What does this fold into?
Amino acid sequence: MAFWLFKSEPDTWSWAQQCTRGDNGEEWNGVRNYQARNFMRQMQVGDQGFFYHSQSEKAVVGIVEVIATSHPDSTTDDPRWDCVDIKAVQPMPRPVTLEMIKAEPRLADMALLRQSRLSVQPVLPEAWQIICQMGGIS
It folds into this structure.
């Protein structure tokens, strides 16, 4: 299993909205960055990801699961763009803020800190464990 981080502005698509989709989940569509698209093309059903609120909150607020592998993005007719489907798994008991992540030396190499504008990015297993612990998930 691989781990990922999905960034969304809460006023565009929030954790609460993701949760309302239940087990049917939702397309992670609208991504127009080649690197992010290529990461989605690597995803497998069962991979897990952090749901990250960007902009005002800047925090990991939940965990999602990939429920459908890469397929054409329904928001465009351009065949270059793909997406995956994800479903909410659980909220973070304590949101893990960007400031908390920056303050943790073991997370210094995270893509979130090095490529801050990338909306879909990989998370190393060690970083996954650290952030889960910071958020109250054992």
Observations:
- The chain has five helices and six strands.
- The mean pLDDT is 97.
